[in-house]
């Protein structure tokens, strides 16, 4: 038999065009590009369980070189013996045969790592050969089980102390494994106020396991401006718009102040001021104060004051209790459909938000449910009447395949009253953020429900194109109307240096009515973070 060294020399000096590797036992042939590749292949066999690989012959025939080899015994196949306790852990017999000893050792090691034994070591002892098959004994040195003891914040360290305590409450004492590390990473992924500079790191000491979180403060203040174009009720071309400014986490408490103003084509104005403080007195209690003013030209004006307290179930869920104080005044004496009234009441609400891994999308999942019990007193009446108000909103982004996504939305509200409702207290919806293709807050009723599907195609991480369709039902007992509505359209959203730009074209109408080009709505908006 030629030595491997001599074989390399022969092949290096031979100027051949074809090199074939032939297994003498299986007669399997493999063509390689040159002699160096052939040598590397044979070396790889000897380094991967075929320790007795032999070169049998080299045959040169013109420009063709055939290299015959025998892999020999695969020493990765073995009869394995384990202790009774390890057999129970692996759910196997104390003695068994494996075709891949290396893979088995990796599986055993992973099994113990997943149980918190981060420094477990697998020991293999060769017992001898039995009928040409190696016998080995496997033992495990588990070491100490590791559990998460504490979090250490680095970088942006001014996060609320309660936020860190909530993380500790959720993960402290849990087994240190990849699954919990992934959950920690996901719980902070696309957080509205902070971002992870790098994956969580771990410091192991003799008695503790500390997870280091390297945080960075996000630019979370936002300016959102939208300009809309369309016809009003008289088919007169008008423009409308909204401004939405959020000041968030300016004092490192995850607090926010939101200022919203909107004008619709039918001369309705909305002003909304909302403040939110999530961790009162370093506890899981938060407070939300909302003041909303709506004025319909010179017809009527309504003011709502909604104070609320809530409890953080976890970083994504809130459960709240709120009060309602509402007052409406008719400004035009000829407006006989409306009436002066005052309302007060109490209600509960639940909010769940799951961030999206796609920066262009607001959420992966968003749920909001509200229920209020109200007492209303109309002008000129001595006794009040009872009302109940329900509201639900749900949104979910589904990843279909590749760059294709499906966004599903549903929204509904009901105002239930034992007495007839006046026009100025009816629910209002329609527009950019609800039923597109209709003017802002132009649809009135004591009940409405809408659902929509939107196909989104991502263009890299900077833009997406969308096509949508929506369906809605409306009930207005006062006018005895129960129309069924639809809307459709398309849009384009893309990042610019100044922020996220949105452009939408939509059209909507009642089923049975033809589509009118004059009812087309165009919205252009920009969302800037600072």
Labels describing this entry:
530 residues; mainly beta; Ubiquitin-like (UB roll); 4 domains; four-stranded mixed β-sheet; 6 helices; 30 strands; 12% helix; disordered N terminus
Summarize the model shown.
This protein folds into 4 domains: 4-70, no CATH class; 78-141, Ubiquitin-like (UB roll); 150-217, Roll (Ubiquitin-like (UB roll)); 222-529, Porin. It is 12% helix and 52% strand. The protein has 6 helices and 30 strands.
Characterise this structure.
- With 530 residues, the chain is mainly beta.
- It has a 16-stranded antiparallel β-barrel with strand order 13-14-15-16-17-18-19-20-21-22-23-26-27-28-29-30. It has a four-stranded mixed β-sheet with strand order 2-1-4-3, covered by helices on one side.
- It has helices at 4-13, 35-47, 84-90, 101-113, 161-171, 178-188, and strands at 18-23, 29-32, 54-61, 64-70, 78-81, 95-98, 121-130, 133-141, 150-155, 194-196, 201-204, 209-217, 222-231, 237-248, 256-263, 268-277, 285-296, 300-312, 317-330, 341-354, 365-378, 385-401, 404-417, 427-429, 443-445, 447-459, 463-475, 484-496, 499-510, 521-529.
- The chain is elongated.
- Helices cover 12% and strands 52% of the residues.
- The longest helix is centred in the N-terminal third of the chain and has 13 residues, at 35-47.
- A hairpin with a 2-residue loop joins strand 22 (385-401) and strand 23 (404-417).
- The protein has four domains: 4-70, no CATH class; 78-141, Ubiquitin-like (UB roll), CATH 3.10.20; 150-217, Ubiquitin-like (UB roll); 222-529, membrane protein fhac: a member of the omp85/tpsb transporter family (Porin, Beta Barrel).
């Amino acid at each position: 038999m030629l030595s491997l060294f001599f074989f390399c020399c022969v092949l290096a000096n031979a100027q051949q065009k074809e090199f074939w590797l032939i297994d003498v036992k299986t007669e399997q042939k493999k063509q390689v590009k040159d002699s160096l590749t052939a040598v590397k292949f044979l070396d790889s066999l000897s380094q991967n369980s075929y320790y007795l690989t032999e070169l049998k012959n080299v045959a040169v025939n013109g420009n063709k070189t055939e290299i015959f080899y025998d892999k020999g015994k695969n020493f990765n196949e073995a009869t394995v013996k384990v202790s009774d306790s390890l057999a129970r852990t692996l759910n196997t017999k104390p003695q068994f045969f494996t075709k891949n000893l290396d893979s088995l050792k990796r599986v055993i090691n992973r099994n113990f790592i997943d149980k918190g034994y981060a420094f477990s070591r697998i020991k293999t002892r060769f017992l001898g050969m039995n009928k040409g098959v190696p016998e080995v004994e496997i033992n495990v040195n588990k070491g100490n089980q590791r559990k998460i003891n504490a979090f250490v914040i680095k970088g942006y360290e001014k996060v609320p102390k309660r936020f860190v305590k909530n993380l500790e409450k959720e993960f402290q004492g849990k087994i240190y494994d990849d699954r919990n590390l992934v959950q920690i990473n996901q719980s902070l992924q696309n957080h509205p106020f902070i971002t992870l500079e790098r994956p969580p790191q771990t410091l192991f000491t003799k008695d503790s396991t500390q997870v280091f979180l390297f945080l960075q403060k996000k630019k979370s203040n936002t300016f959102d401006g939208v300009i809309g174009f369309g016809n009003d009720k008289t088919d007169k071309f008008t423009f409308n718009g909204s401004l939405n400014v959020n000041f968030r986490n300016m004092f490192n408490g995850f607090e926010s102040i939101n200022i919203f103003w909107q004008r619709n084509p039918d001369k309705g104005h909305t002003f909304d001021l909302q403040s939110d403080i999530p961790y009162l007195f370093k506890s899981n209690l938060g407070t939300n104060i909302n003041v909303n003013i709506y004025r319909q030209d010179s017809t009527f004006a309504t003011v709502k004051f909604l104070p609320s307290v809530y409890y953080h179930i976890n970083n994504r869920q809130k459960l709240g209790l709120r009060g309602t104080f509402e007052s409406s005044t008719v400004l035009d004496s000829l407006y006989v459909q409306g009436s002066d009234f005052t309302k007060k009441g109490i209600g509960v609400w639940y909010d769940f938000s799951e961030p999206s891994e796609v920066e262009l999308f607001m959420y992966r999942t968003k749920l909001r449910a509200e229920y209020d019990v109200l007492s209303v007193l109309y002008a000129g009446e001595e006794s009040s009447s009872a009302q109940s108000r329900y509201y639900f909103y749900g949104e979910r982004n589904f990843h279909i395949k590749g760059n294709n996504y499906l966004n599903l939305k549903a929204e509904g509200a009901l105002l239930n009253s034992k007495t007839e409702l006046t026009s100025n207290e009816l629910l209002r919806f329609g527009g950019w953020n609800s039923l597109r293709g209709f003017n802002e807050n132009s649809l009135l009723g004591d009940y409405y429900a809408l659902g929509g599907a939107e196909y989104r195609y991502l263009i890299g991480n900077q833009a997406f194109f969308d096509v949508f369709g929506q369906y809605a039902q409306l009930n207005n007992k006062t006018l005895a109307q129960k129309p069924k509505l639809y809307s459709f359209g398309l849009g384009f959203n893309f990042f610019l240096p100044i922020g996220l730009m949105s452009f939408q074209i939509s059209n909507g109408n009642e089923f049975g009515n033809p589509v009118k080009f004059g009812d087309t709505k165009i919205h252009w908006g920009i969302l800037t973070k600072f």
